[in-house]
Amino acid sequence: xxxxxxxxxxxxxxxxxxxxxxxxxxxxxxxxxxxxxxxxxxxxxxxxxxxxxxxxxxxxxxxxxxxxxxxxxxxxxxxxxxxxxxxxxxxxxxxxxxxxxxxxxxxxxxxxxxxxxxxxxxxxxxxxxxxxxxxxxxxxxxxxxxxxxxxxxxxxxxxxxxxxxxxxxxxxxxxxxxxxxxxxxxxxxxxxxxxxxxxxxxxxxxxxxxxxxxxxxxxxxxxxxxxxxxxxxxxxxxxxxxxxxxxxxxxxxxxxxxxxxxxxxxxxxxxxxxxxxxxx
Length: 280
Hints:
- The protein is mainly beta.
- Helices cover 5% and strands 35% of the residues.
- The strands form 5 sheets. Strands 11, 13, 14, 15, 17, 19 and 20 form a 7-stranded antiparallel beta sheet that branches. The protein has a 4-stranded antiparallel beta sheet with strand order 3-2-6-7, with no helix packed on it. It has a 3-stranded antiparallel beta sheet with strand order 1-5-4, with no helix packed on it.
């Protein structure tokens, strides 16, 4: 059986929803983070910051960043976009620049052939649709719904092997396109897809590249997108617990076969979901 590959376009995805972009207040107790930092493009940096009982306000490239109080003190958990360059970068902590270093990483290349040429070079009508979908979907990546405090430890949303990796530099029919902004999970059509962590459903819909899609906000700018679903079983505004059903695996949108594409975003930067998968 050939490997199923995700062909979702990596343009920003967006929604019309009221969102709050403010740094959360966290109690004085300290916690240990359930993942290891991976400060590369598409990874996560842990940056120590100054703070007392209340979480300091932190931004990165103009986006609010979640913070946690750990045994070493307050830290900022910074999602690094794939477009970032290796070298020195910085966050803003209440008006003060705090530097950190991005390490280099080169992702492998993936060459694919598509029979449907429109999925490589959309028509003007397709481009108009894609633009409308961008306008509809973009604010979702910035959502900070009240009452949700992500644990930063996620379950795999559906059983299966991990196939097309995050960050792959993709070439469709000989033409370079945007890198793969999510993780693909090979699974049969109709298999249950469940929330990897608690959250609120921000948007559902059928989109040109991602097909039937659910966008779920976990809190503090942590957002998941689930693409190519055959069925969506949730509604916008619905609160989910970890493990709740949200849809079924499919092959809608730009996909060669049934699988789940899962994108994960921190501070409006798509990062590798494997960093946060528990048990890996």
